[in-house]
Design goal:
The chain is α/β, with parallel strands linked by helices. It contains 14 helices and 7 strands.
């Protein structure tokens, strides 16, 4: 039997669920060129010429039974890999526990940058989808780098600003902690098909701003100062007033004063309304 290194086994496992060289590179913290090199080595050791032949040969050799080396038997019927990221806690535990209960393959990414710290569950032969638990602004790097849809799970009931921010950042679905056990896996499947879903609580929040969105208004084209634009962008990234003040090196009171002026220019009353108005007006 050919002897594959741990890195080659990891690349082989990702090949087994259809990852491209670029996706495998992101997941393993390598360059696509390096992953391509590992694939050539795998092909040579297995005596094959294509990725599908390599996976077939590896299955015949029992290489996908080596769970202690990061690989495990493929389970059919779950045609995607879920990449999970979030802070440790009961919500993250329930997400991963639900995926295990339903036999869903997943990778737990300790940081949005991915790399060698990944913890594996059984791989499958499908596409990628991400689950972000209580995401901060850095967590959105993960679905962007993987070019994968994002499902957001909140451990606490989100407010309107948090919900709108997730939608504007491209979330395909928003769930509450209580929805995880019953709804997570169906929602993941819908996200892979391009559908967008919201929990009932999120729908109620979004519905509260629909009248404002539907009412006829003059085109939004206010003149914003550079500082006002910086504060608007910081709000779009999900920063609090305190985080905005720290990132810009100014006082919290200064941020609040400029933010009030920004609201007046946009004709809004708070951050969530300002974000929606700015998005509609092409300012974000």
């Amino acid at each position: 039997m050919p002897v594959l290194t741990d890195r080659e086994l990891a690349v082989l496992g990702l090949m087994g669920h259809g990852c491209t060289a670029t996706q495998a590179a992101v997941l393993l913290g390598l360059s696509p060129h390096t992953v391509t090199g590992y694939k050539r080595s795998i092909f040579a050791k297995l005596g094959v010429r294509s990725q599908s032949h390599a996976v077939s040969r590896a299955i015949a050799l029992g290489l996908f039974d080596g769970a202690n080396r990061g690989l495990a038997p493929t389970r059919t019927g779950h045609g995607h890999l879920t990449v999970v990221h979030g802070p440790a806690g009961s919500c993250l535990s329930d997400v991963t526990g639900t995926l295990r209960l339903h036999g869903q393959a997943f990778v737990l990414a300790p940081t949005p940058e991915l790399g060698a710290g990944l913890r594996w569950s059984p791989p499958t032969d499908g596409r990628l989808v991400t689950v972000l638990v209580d995401p901060d602004h850095t967590a959105w790097q993960l679905p962007q780098r993987l070019h994968a849809p994002a499902v957001v799970v909140h451990s606490a009931t989100p407010d309107l600003a948090t919900t709108v921010t997730a939608v504007l950042r491209g979330a395909h679905a928003i769930l509450g902690h209580a929805d995880v056990h019953g709804d997570l896996c169906p929602v993941l499947a819908l996200a892979l098909y391009g559908y967008h879903t919201l929990s009932p609580a999120s729908v109620r929040l979004m519905a509260s701003v629909v009248p404002t969105l539907m009412s006829p208004q003059a085109p939004l084209n206010p003149h914003l100062t550079g500082r006002e634009r910086e504060i608007l962008l910081s709000a779009a990234l999900g920063h609090t007033v305190l985080q905005t003040a720290r990132s810009l090196g100014i006082a919290v009171k200064t941020v609040e004063n400029i933010q009030t002026r920004l609201f007046r220019k946009l004709g809004t009353r708070n951050r969530s309304e300002a974000l929606l108005a700015a998005h509609r007006g092409g300012l974000l």
